[in-house]
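Homework help board

Subject: predicted structure for assignment chain

Our instructor gave us this sequence and asked us to write out the predicted structure in token form, then describe one feature. I got the tokens but I'm not sure how to describe them. Can anyone check?
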Amino acid sequence: MSNVCPFCGAPITQRARFCPACGRALPARAQATPLHNEAEPPVEVALHTPKRIKLNGESLNLHELINVVESGVTWWQSKLSSADTATRERAAEAIEELSQVLHSLSKQLSQGRETIRITTRLPVLRSYEAGCPRCGRGNRAGAKYCLGCGAPLGAPPAQEAITVTAMPLRFSIAARTDQGRVRKNNQDSIYTGTIRLRNGTARLCLVADGMGGAKAGEQASKIAADVTRAQIQHEVEGKAPLDDAAWQALLSAAAKAANRRVYEAARNDEDRQGMGTTLTIALIVGDRLHVASVGDSRAYLMNAGGVTKDGATTAQLTSDHSLVARLVDIGQITAEQARTHPQRNILYRSIGTDPSVEVDTLSEQLEPGDVVLLCSDGLFNHVRDEELANIALNQTDANRACEQLVALANERGGRDNISVVIVRAERQTA
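My token output:
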């Protein structure tokens, strides 16, 4: 039986010590009005949609967004015939909620509007505007010394200057996955390891959050993780990519290979039909970070010295391919409401639910002090971004940081599987 927080009214579990919505410590004997019977958390849904929502600068296409909302209504309508009373009630509430969104969007469409303005977007990351006269590497504006070779910036190198050897980064990596306090099994898969290159190694990390029933979700995430790392290793054995675009294409191809394998496995087994998984990949080659993502498992970049153009210490690198993320984008709901929104588990893009999939990719320069954090929604739905950064940056031991984050998510309800990977980058001194 779920209760509600006495401060903000958000759903809480019997064993929760903190509210997952407002974060306040709950009274030892907080007794709130029961919300309704939710022995199991809301099911995760990967919709089969004929269209994809594309983020186009400042706007979203209304037709694409409405298509996803309609797909969500159709899915929940199929649950109205469930033998379980709680499931039918939840379906009716979800349909009502989505119908209100659909009405709002349809009204705008009827007024001749084809697109809708995006009010929130991913942050603009730090830029590297100061070029080093010695090695040519880009550095942040205002930097006095080159991050790569250590040479002073702003003056040409002396004719007889001694070449300074670039100082590479060293990395400490840790990962944790946990069943949580409500789910009966763990459908997440994580991986951290190395990929062999001809002239060294690359570091591969990934998080996959499966869906589609207990065993099916586990299998979907495991297949995706196994295929991804095997595909990447196979591709670089011939010749490693030479630039960011080529690395991004390699990661995209690996995610698409995983999509085909999960989709085929689901089609060949009735018990696994409809299974899917999120997939977020981080590959570190030298001091370059390459990311690929499908679904709503996230990648963050953090640094106490700032990672965005305006100096913020935390930046979400990936865009959630979920309905609520797009509703936040257009101002339909707030980011805080999205954390506990009834439809937060509806994805419109995932690995394995459709024959083909679009993959988001990016590359970013890493600096000493950077922390790369990957996680499933079981973590960020309970722990806010600023809390993630506070623990990840202040706890210098990556293993302990992972443990603390998982423990905090569990303290706040642990309503989903929890997975986190942390990579700390430091200057190589020897």
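Reply (TA_rk): Your tokens look well-formed. For the description, you could write something like this. The chain has nine helices and 19 strands. That's the kind of observation they're looking for.
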